[in-house]
Amino acid sequence: xAKRLEKFKTTIFTQMSMLAIKHGAINLGxxxxxxxxxxxxxEAAIQSIKEGKNQYAxxxxxxxxxxxxxxxxxxxxxxxxxxxxxxxxxxxxxEAIAATMLxxxxxxxxxxxxxxxxDSYEATLSMAGAKVKCITLRPPDFSLPIDELKSAVSKNTRxxxxxxxxxxxxxxxxxxxxxxxxxxxxENDVLVFADEVYDKLAFEMEHISVASLPGMYERTVxxxxxxxxxxxxGWKIGWAIAPPHLxxxxxxxxxxxTFATSTPMQYASATALRAPDSYFEELKRDYSAKKAILVxxxxxxxxxxxxxxxxxFVVVDHTPFxxxxxxxxxxxxxxxxxxxxxxxxVFYLNPEEGKNLVRFTFCKDEDTLKSAVKRMKExx
Length: 380
Ligand code: GLN
Fold this sequence. Notes:
Blueprint: H1 12-23, E1 26-27, H2 39-50, H3 63-77, E2 87-90, H4 92-104, E3 110-115, H5 119-128, E4 131-136, H6 146-152, E5 157-163, H7 175-188, E6 191-195, E7 220-225, E8 238-241, H8 244-257, H9 263-273, H10 277-301, E9 304-305, E10 313-317, H11 326-337, E11 339-340, E12 342-343, E13 357-361, H12 366-379
The structure holds glutamine.
Glutamine (GLN) binds next to loops.
């Protein structure tokens, strides 16, 4: 394996999902719904295939999807973006992240991450040859350590990677925190790469796109996808929104990574994004009920549960159960209790920082969540 990828193992999500199958454990690890996406979107995909929309799509997205993405972003953030010049459709947000790093980062450029961070950030930054600096968000509230950020950002910083709502903690950056980040970026001429794939799963507060803050659009790449919002994680449709001078870099990388993304799924995704408001309201209502089942259950089982404002994840402190670290705890949980969670130490540059924390997902049907809770209450 190439040196730039030597330190990365099989992703923790793959590892844990394989263990779930092997031990017949209930999988509250990898974040994929165990229920299906809406019929009107699936029908649109079938229709597109039947209508012969099956050859290569335009590289940066089928026009209908670029327009639907721009219209949705206008509704959500108030920003007017040009669907032709500022929207690039990718194979999931994961490709948007890779294309952004590879298209806009030079070897040796310094990029700031907030730990715990989603695993693909560090790996794609490594592929781009970036120098990673890390700021840790700490429990109980995972708030932004403003002074640490201020001393980390300088004229040498090329970009800050911002994920809100945040995987794995469920933290959402507040307007005050985003203002601090924005003023540091403007002062030091820093870009922001914003991963906002959980924006429709914001329960406790309003999601704010950092691109909508004064002076930020011109220095921000906003990334999102269809998977979480429409319970279709296997479709792998994502996008990056950025001003033309940044879109150019993203598109150059995208052109030579994947060239284009599945044509019929793009047409169906355009239909999805035009869903009425009631779809998004119902999604949130359903997820609030699921969240309540899991959070109450975890508390009753004896965990310290940290507040999660968004995403379909919650992070807990497992130390009341006396296992030595997050990995040992997750192994015990799979083998003795029959439930899978994600150890968080892999989401830090220094694994020690995550050793007390594990992540559970509630993107499962209510019966599955109830059975998992029952097992934990009985066997932990
Ligand atoms: N984003 C999903 C999670 O955090 C998993 C994606 C993956 O398996 N790579 O669980």
